[in-house]
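Re-run with default settings, no changes from the original entry. Doing this only to confirm the output is reproducible before filing.
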Amino acid sequence: MHIAGVDEAGRGPLFGPMVVAIASASREKEELLVKMGVRDSKTLTPSRRRALRAQLERVLDYYALRVVEPAEIDEAVSRGPAQPP
C-alpha cells in the first residue's frame, strides 16, 4: 500500500504560475518520513524545505512537479468546464 499527497501553490494568472506537486511512498516508509520531519511546508523555513526536497527525491517512490503558467490557466478558464464524452 502507498500513501500519497497532492498540493498546489500560487495565485494563478493574477500574480504568476501555479505549481502542483504529487508525492507517493510505500506505507513502510511512513515512519522514515516522520523522522525526516516531513510536514506542512508552510511550517518549515525555506532552507529546511530545500534540504527536505533533496532527501525526499531519494526516498519517495514517485514524485512529480508541474508549473502551470498564467497563459495556460487563462486559456483553460476561457474554454470553460470540460464536457463529458
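The longest strand covers residues 2-10. Strands lie at 2-10, 18-26, 62-68.
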